[in-house]
Amino acid sequence: MQIISQVFQEISPADFFYRNKEIAGFSNPARAIFSAIRELIENSLDATEPFGILPDIYIRLSSTGETEEEGFYTLRVEDNGSGIPSEYIPLAFCQFLFSSKYKLKQTRGTFGLGGTMTILYGQITTNKPVEVLSSTGDSKIYGYRLMIDIERNQPIILEKKVYENDGQWHGTIVEVNLEGDYSKAKPKVIEYLKQTAIANPYANIMFVDPKGRLYKFERTVSVLPPQPKETLPHPHGVDVETIYRIIRVTKCKTLLDFMQEHFHRVGRQIAKSFLEFAGFPEDTDPKRLKPEEIVKLVQAMKSFNGFLPPDASCLSPLGEEILKAGIMKELEPEFAAVTQRKPSAYSGHPFIVEVGVAYGGKVPVRSDNDITLYRFANKIPLVYDESGDVSWKVIKSIDWRRYNVEPGMPIAIIVHICSTKIPWKTVGKEMIADRPEISREILNGVREVARKLKVYLSRKEKVKREKERLSVFLRYLPKIAEFSAKLAREEKVPDIKNLLRRVRRFGEG
Ligand SMILES: Nc1ncnc2c1ncn2[C@@H]1O[C@H](COP(=O)(O)OP(=O)(O)O)[C@@H](O)[C@H]1O
Ligand SMILES: [Mg+2]
To answer: Which ligand number lies closest to the CA of residue 47?
Structure first.
């Protein structure tokens, strides 16, 4: 039998994401509009906060079709961020897997594809180029009109312009045309913006929708969370490829130096006892390790218990104050409590969990009477695929009656996880996988704030009961006094004012 010969072919990263749009969050027109807005906002936040700039972000979505139903839009996002050096603008926006964020520290973007995917989607639905205007704050502003050569994963520069920058403006403006369904996406977009405002209360965010409605989220704190520092890999988190890459660039002549130089929190003493544990002489030249020795080294790194846990300087949690400010600003609750858990790690990746609870005020009641859950990862709100997320699983595992919580109460739980490596389930970044180390921290955090909520709710219940009691007295006591006066054939009805005052005082106490 003759087997028909097969054709083998290689595709570029751009082509791969062109064929698999759904895994990057562009599965249908509604989702595409949502993801486009989200990715550009994330890039703007990443271009401001880490540079110590309080974010001012302006987003405008306008209809370009004859009617809104036609589903063609222009999306414009402006920020006051770091800007991008001119020579990198085409690559940053029109080459997949090109990023300034492939570093070991916390950022929102991590894959080098969010913004680029937005532009690709715009291009394949409208055949129009993206327009970018950017300045790093020097004397020039650069303007580009760009498209993506999808098969080659390369930018095509249609036009480049240079303008004078006298006002020292820095920032980036991106304008992209795309097909979408805003009317369907609207609830999620507004929810996303509101939650972004909760996690980033130091940002000014303005959004103008296709009908010209303005949504304004104003800054209420003018401090930024401490910025993350770049870190070295933790020995528990490395694999063979990482070791190869380090060996290629290392200047260390011995494994003893190598361990201390390239790994997170490994000092001389720890390096010594590790090498003894792993069975390598201290003066082994790392460049001479054989392939099977590298595997042995990696395995020993994973199983050695003597390494210090990763520290959290590469992370940028919100901190209790900012988180609480965000909650107060957007939810205006009657009661709120927050907590920040101590840094922890899974597979050598450090993470911190922050949890908040809010009761009453603008906290919504869900139609299914469940608790409202706001999920955040590296300060990004996650508004899709809740049921697949680790935080949802944790919330559902709790017996809420133990905390005096009843179905239908206006209660929101806020869970923020920050890490150098969020264990995403997909590159669309909507669901966090269930790692036991992470779910344990979430559970403990939720319990901590739930206990505070319990105290508040039982005090509230007591006050309510006392009030009811008082109102019963108020209603009947005058009648009883009158009646007993009649019974006793007294002319004068006894004065109950004093009595009532005493009851009232007790009710307040
Ligand atoms: N608004 C912006 N301001 C400054 N730099 C930006 C902006 N948007 C994108 N960039 C640059 O373009 C790169 C690629 O962006 P993107 O495709 O979204 O991937 P990622 O955000 O994962 O790095 C970023 O790493 C960043 O360096
Ligand atoms: Mg991005």
So the answer is: 1
| Helix residue ranges per DSSP H, 282-387 | 291-303, 320-331
Q: Report the atom number in ligand 1 closest to the C-alpha of 108.
A: 21
Alpha helices in 290-420 (DSSP H): 291-303, 320-331, 390-397
For 100, counting Cβ atoms within 10 Å of its Cβ (0-12 exposed, 13-18 middle, 19+ buried), the class is middle
* Cα–ligand 1 centroid distance for 481 (angstroms): 78
* Domain 235-303 listed as CATH 2.70.70.10: no
Q: Is the distance from the beta carbon of residue 171 to the nearest atom of ligand 1 less than 6 Å?
A: no
In this structure, the residue with its CA closest to atom 12 of ligand 1 is 92
Task: Give the domain ranges of the chain.
Answer: 13-217, 235-303, 320-456, 460-508
Report the candidate in 74, 81, 91, 80 with the shortest Cα–Cα distance to residue 144: 91
The closest residue, in CA terms, to atom 11 on ligand 1 is 92
Cβ(172) – ligand 1 distance below 6 Å: yes
Residue with tokens 């006392």: 466
The CATH class given to the 320-456 domain equals: alpha beta
CB 92 within 8 A of CB 109: no
Span 13-217: which CATH code? 3.30.565.10
Task: pLDDT tens for the chain, 509 residues: list them.
Answer: 777 888 888 999 899 999 988 888 899 999 999 999 999 999 999 999 999 999 999 999 999 977 767 799 999 999 999 999 999 999 999 999 999 888 888 998 878 889 999 999 999 999 999 999 999 999 999 999 999 999 999 999 999 999 999 878 999 999 999 999 999 999 999 999 999 999 999 999 999 999 999 999 999 999 999 999 999 999 998 999 999 999 999 999 999 999 999 999 999 999 999 999 999 999 999 999 999 999 999 999 999 999 998 888 999 999 999 999 999 999 999 999 999 999 998 988 999 999 999 999 999 999 999 999 999 999 999 999 999 999 999 999 999 999 999 999 999 999 999 999 999 988 778 999 999 999 999 999 999 999 999 999 999 999 999 888 888 888 888 888 888 888 888 778 777 777 777 766 655 54
